[in-house]
Specification:
Elements: H1 2-19, E1 27-38, E2 43-53, E3 60-74, E4 77-88, E5 101-116, E6 119-133, E7 138-153, E8 158-169, E9 175-189, E10 192-203, E11 207-217, H2 222-225
Parallel strand pairs: 1-11
Antiparallel strand pairs: 1-2, 2-3, 3-4, 4-5, 5-6, 6-7, 7-8, 8-9, 9-10, 10-11
InterPro entries: DUF2490
Organism: Flagellimonas pelagia
Keywords: Signal
């Protein structure tokens, strides 16, 4: 009887280890930079770099570089056409046999902003065309994303930021992932800020906890482009 119980415990342990995803039990980290630089009254350039780790300072997971051209319809509505490059290291020290991948991504985006009392809301709608390269195979996938973000100013310097973002696959399984985020922000200057927060990233078969540090730098570049 004891041998049977020990056998069942061992089998359960094997199933748990097998089901575990790379780095799922670790607190990972994303270190990010975002920039929106006005080049004319209607147009601005989006720049972005993200460095993602399975752990807070080690086991590199992903590099994401993204840029785009924004068209400001009005102060509360922005349309964007952009491109992203993503290099993913799927290996983790417990899972050395995973295959690395590279991705070229085109995206179309629309942002709407509104204010309710002191709360600043932002609705972001995004479509993505993903061209994936796994070395010995390639794939093209399509995805839709919706993010609802809320910002609450506490003082002229400090603020709180929250968002929830849903990813919908336009092929195969409908649910892609969901990101729930909360952060404290600091306005450093008129055009720069810093956010420190936590994100719960849920997939259909895994949940990741991620510490996040984000730097925002948005200088107005119209003076450079309007020089005669």
């Amino acid at each position: 009887m004891i041998k049977k119980i020990m056998g069942l415990v061992f089998l359960f342990g094997c199933l748990v280890v097998k089901a575990q995803q790379p780095g799922e039990d670790k607190l990972g980290a994303w270190y990010m930079y975002f920039g929106t630089n006005k080049v004319s009254e209607r147009f601005s350039i989006h720049t972005e770099a993200q460095f993602r780790f399975y752990e807070t300072t080690s086991n590199f997971n992903q590099l994401l570089l993204r840029t785009g051209l924004n068209y400001h319809i009005n102060p509360d509505a922005i349309a964007t056409l952009g491109y992203g490059y993503i290099s993913t290291d799927n290996t983790f020290y417990e899972f050395p046999d995973e295959i690395d991948s590279k991705e070229h991504r085109v995206f179309e985006q629309f942002i709407l902003k509104n204010k309710v009392w002191e709360f600043l809301f932002e609705h972001r709608y995004r479509l993505e065309q993903r061209f994936l390269d796994f070395g010995d195979a390639t794939d093209t996938q399509h995805r839709a994303r919706y993010r609802l973000q809320m910002t609450l100013p506490l003082t002229d310097t400090f603020y709180l930021n929250f968002y929830d973002e849903l990813f919908i696959n336009l092929q195969d399984d409908l649910f892609g992932q969901n990101r729930l985020y909360a952060a404290v922000g600091v306005n450093i200057t008129e055009n720069s800020s810093l956010q420190v927060g936590y994100m719960r990233n849920q997939f259909s078969d895994a949940v990741y906890d991620r510490f996040q540090v984000a730097v925002f730098y948005n200088p107005d570049l119209r003076g450079l482009f309007n020089k005669k």
